[in-house]
Amino acid sequence: xxxxxxxxxxxxxxxxxxxxxxxxxxxxxxxxxxxxxxxxxxxxxxxxxxxxxxxxxxxxxxxxxxxxxxxxxxxxxxxxxxxxxxxxxxxxxxxxxxxxxxxxxxxxxxxxxxxxxxxxxxxxxxxxxxxxxxxxxxxxxxxxxxxxxxxxxxxxxxxxxxxxxxxxxxxxxxxxxxxxxxxxxxxxxxxxxxxxxxxxxxxxxxxxxxxxxxxxxxxxxxxxxxxxxxxxxxxxxxxxxxxxxxxxxxxxxxxxxxxxxxxxxxxxxxxxxxxxxxxxxxxxxxxxxxxxxxxxxxxxxxxxxxxxxxxxxxxxxxxxxxxxxxxxxxxxxxxxxxxxxxxxxxxxxxxxxxxxxxxxxxxxxxxxxxxxxxxxxxxxxxxxxxxxxxxxxxxxxxxxxxxxxxxxxxxxxxxxxxxxxxxxxxxxxxxxxxxxxxxxxxxxxxxxxxxxxxxxxxxxxxxxxxxxxxxxxxxxxxxxxxxxxxxxxxxxxxxxxxxxxxxxxxxxxxxxxxxxxxxxxxxxxxxxxxxxxxxx
Amino acid sequence: xxxxxxxxxxxxxxxxxxxxxxxxxxxxxxxxxxxxxxxxxxxxxxxxxxxxxxxxxxxxxxxxxxxxxxxxxxxxxxxxxxxxxxxxxxxxxxxxxxxxxxxxxxxxxxxxxxxxxxxxxxxxxxxxxxxxx
Lengths: 536, 133
Description:
Structural class of chain A: alpha/beta
Largest sheet of chain B: 5 strands, parallel
CATH class of chain A: Alpha Beta
Low-confidence stretches of chain A: none
Radius of gyration of chain B: 13 Å
CATH topology of chain B: Rossmann fold
Largest interface: A-B, 38 and 33 residues
Structural class of chain B: alpha/beta
Shape of chain B: globular
Oligomer: heterodimer
Strand content of chain B: 15-25%
Distance between the termini of chain B: 5 Å
Shape of chain A: globular
Largest sheet of chain A: 5 strands, parallel
Number of domains of chain A: 1
Radius of gyration of chain A: 23 Å
Number of helices of chain A: 21
Number of strands of chain A: 12
Number of domains of chain B: 1
Order of helices and strands of chain B: EHEHEHEHEH
CATH superfamily of chain B: Cobalamin-binding domain
CATH class of chain B: Alpha Beta
Strand order of the largest sheet of chain B: 2-1-3-4-5
Number of helices of chain B: 5
CATH architecture of chain A: Alpha-Beta Barrel
Helix content of chain B: 40-55%
Mean pLDDT of chain B: 95
């Protein structure tokens, strides 16, 4: 299995299905559409980057995904990362919080604080960001099913600390459609879930215009088995579904599109990923300009976090993941990402240690400080291979998007479980291909070593901490004004029943210290719960 | 194999709140390709639900997929429920992100087939063929 030669006569294809030639020339660029879609950095259609000076003016934000235990534990880790030069925060919540359960819910037993920080009420959010300058450090909330409540809590916390919400920056993931495809933190059925995303877009456009209410994620669709071209095409279909909802409410595309962002994956073939990002940037600009009639350039910018790469990391020989992570960071930097994060080498084993987080952070820093990645814009631009592949990836994405439209649109396909079935069939084919040795993974099907004890420090989980979180929730409940909470929750339900935007009512409820679970239950009472279609 | 031509029936479940289902769906497809009958529960199953489905379906194999770390508290609750349902002689398995230091306790609880990240599909299928025969 360790033979590196390529079998003769057998075509080499990237994961998106594009055949790779042994050599590219200017003729290949011409044959695939030339440089018509390239433009200059900062100019439509933004293939080379959304800003003229890119990292020369502002290096990518470094935002490791962090959160565990309770808000106080997480606050400490945030401060550690900031002290080590991290420039943004990306908050991990525990599963009960993510799906709208309180820490004392029977379904939360064993899960409180396990894979992220437990949040029950505004009091936890206040603790989590205590002492952190929210103007200097932008915060991204990785939450979807309960996103409306967590956005409300974040805005309320900032307002309470004296920040002007009209100027506050930050991001919520809040991309529920992809949760039905992968990741699985859905709560409500598909249609009210999309409506709720629309509520947050509309509310932020009016009240927090600098806040990014949605970060549309190709990332998890890729993790679930999509190819790089599908990852981006499906994400654009999903972004269009949210945009259509916002427009149906009477918003103009330029009132909100500039505050949408994206989250994409970086594992796999380096050139395919770079071409994916360059192609995607121009395709999204074209959609927003031509399909939606935007005139503000900001609306057309594909702003993104690119990173992670969990699907490419291995359980075997975990230290090799540090090297993979370095290449993934290189891909993101070569692709003009606004923000970067890296999965840590120990993530197939545990919640990353401080040590592992620091290695990831240093990886991103050294590209800027030592390797010259921030010196010039789009350094791969003009390479015949990269330009050809960029044209081909764009054509592939357009083809996939047209296919989704022909099959009834992304919302319908997701509700029926058809995207899920498609990507999981591909994940199975890929796993078989890896196990049979056709798709090479170092340490898995080639260059294996005798098993050694991995150099991984396990993150502890403590049931007593979970109990302490329940006690904290009880003490907040005891102190708050019960009448005010009841009234606020009643308004959440009434507004949901009336089909109104529920965000103003949720904001009032969180300010009264209503809990994530209490607010979510009011919404479930109106919207119902999602039932997963099982389809193979 | 005394079961004659009867297909091996597997109840494949996602315990707790964990939403990572790429792996479990891959395993489900491998089991179906191997000719097993697979009842996949979908996400967010409680121990009570898993035990109920295993009993109702008369499963030969009860297999769990857990990637978010809550496998021990879940299996501790599931064990007595499977036992009181008379499913002690069935094959109990678990796969996913299962740290090595938890394997002994899981085996002691009765989850003898443990397939951590990196396990091969054929090994999972062969284990079931041997144990459920």
